[in-house]
Specification:
heterodimer; A: about 290 residues; mainly alpha; flat; B: about 130 residues; alpha+beta; four-stranded antiparallel beta sheet; three-stranded antiparallel beta sheet
């Protein structure tokens, strides 16, 4: 089925644009969110340097907004790029503050300057991702729809689509999370997370995965909604692919000898759920490419 | 993609909220900058009672940077004097931002309550 443009009202369109923006930010910015050197850089940053980083981020995203941006529009004038740039920076900041809270890198006890520095530094890659949101996976939007839904064997289609989804989720999960799995950040963050934080992380991972595939309006979202696979209902697909992302996360941790037999199960679970966030972001992106 | 039309009310709302957020952030950074920074001043003190765990004695120590500037490689030394002997233990805190606190545990074979325990910061690096 060819992808079709869905008619939405202005508020719904705006909501989709914002979800697309945050999704793009996650796709580009999640590796640096798990990099302790960025936290440390942010922690020791003086206020003047924070303003400079914000200004540089703003300039970069304004330039990117002229050619890409996160909205479904073209012929972007400079004034639009500047206004979208303000929104990009704000969305980047908001996204990273929420995620840093979930990861316990910012808490209510964190000194103000430390929290500001971490947010400002982490917001830069998120801002770039937001400004490139519409560019991500555009190729599959333009060329990936041919032949979908046109074959006669429905059951073969369903199994084939399901296998393709599982494979794409696993490949995407490995693609994004593989370079995070062996790092010390995973056990470091896992040590600080209690059951409440882990549940929040599961919720964020599921919401992000759902948002990227079914809300963000990326590439072949409509095609995905119309696909025939066993997992193709948005809710079941999101849940099943999150489980696949968790299995991939566990496999990657095992591969890098980060999981040990006999280790406390809750510490092991924390690491898997933590790596499950980048894995589910990658898995969602991978499914869009199918 | 379609050519850019005039901004909708929804887009103006997003822009207004985003502008408010960015301006608020800049104001908070400016207020922070207006405050005079005090040099890094990490201090260490015992933060809880001694606990016996597996036949050894755990002492909780809180290291707090009472200054505004960051301290790196903070060396924390705990000296326990028991029956005329001195047992030294040390740990390093990689990174301590201004106002930040890190909790450490020192482990001794002897009960610190039977002797005299001193905990102190012996040095740190200014980044």
């Amino acid at each position: 089925m060819p992808a079709t443009e869905v008619h939405r009202g202005p508020w719904a369109t705006e909501a989709v644009d914002l979800v697309r923006a945050v999704s793009g930010g996650l796709l580009f910015g999640i590796p640096l969110l798990f990099t302790m050197e960025v936290w440390w850089t942010g922690t020791s940053t003086e206020p003047g340097a924070m303003v400079a980083v914000l200004g540089l981020t703003f300039l970069v995203v304004v330039v990117l907004n002229r050619t890409s941006g996160f909205r479904s529009t073209k012929n972007v004038r400079l004034v639009d790029a500047v206004m979208d740039g303000v929104e990009t920076v704000a969305l980047g900041l908001l996204s990273v503050v929420v995620l840093l809270f979930v990861l316990q890198e910012i808490t209510l006890d964190t000194p103000l300057r430390e929290a500001l520095g971490k947010a400002v530094y982490e917001a830069m890659p998120f801002g770039i991702g937001i400004a490139l949101a519409h560019q991500f996976l555009r190729k599959s939007r333009e060329g990936g729809d041919e032949g979908e839904g046109s074959t006669s064997s429905a059951s073969t289609d369903r199994i084939g689509a399901t296998v393709a989804d599982i494979g794409a989720t696993a490949i995407g999960a490995v693609f994004v999370a593989f370079n995070i799995a062996p790092t010390d950040e995973i056990p470091l963050l896992a040590a600080t997370m209690g059951p409440g934080e882990l549940l929040a992380l599961v919720g964020v991972s599921l919401a992000v995965s759902f948002g990227i595939v079914f809300v963000g309006g990326f590439s072949n979202e409509e095609q995905r909604r119309s696909q025939q696979g066993i997992l193709q209902h948005p809710v079941t697909e999101t849940a099943a692919c999150y489980l696949i992302a968790l299995v991939c996360a566990a496999a990657m941790l095992w591969f890098f000898q980060r999981l040990e037999l006999g280790a406390p199960w809750d510490a092991t679970l924390s690491q898997i759920v933590l790596l499950g966030l980048p894995a589910s972001v990658g898995g969602a992106a991978g499914r869009l490419a199918v | 993609m379609s050519p850019r039309a005039a901004r909708s009310a929804a887009e103006w709302t997003t822009f207004a909220v985003a502008s408010l957020l960015v301006l608020t952030l800049l104001a908070v950074i400016a207020l922070d900058a207006a405050q005079t920074d005090t040099p890094a001043a990490p201090v260490a003190k015992q933060s809880g009672p001694v606990e016996e765990v597996g036949g050894r004695f755990h002492v909780a120590v809180a290291v707090t940077n009472e200054g505004d500037e960051t301290a790196e490689a903070v060396q924390v030394v705990a000296s326990l004097q028991v029956d005329g002997d001195t047992i030294d233990a040390d740990q390093t805190v990689d990174f301590l931002a201004g106002g930040d606190q890190v909790d450490l545990i020192f482990v001794f074979d002897d009960d610190p309550d039977d002797g005299e325990l001193q905990v102190a910061v012996s040095g740190f690096t200014v980044p």
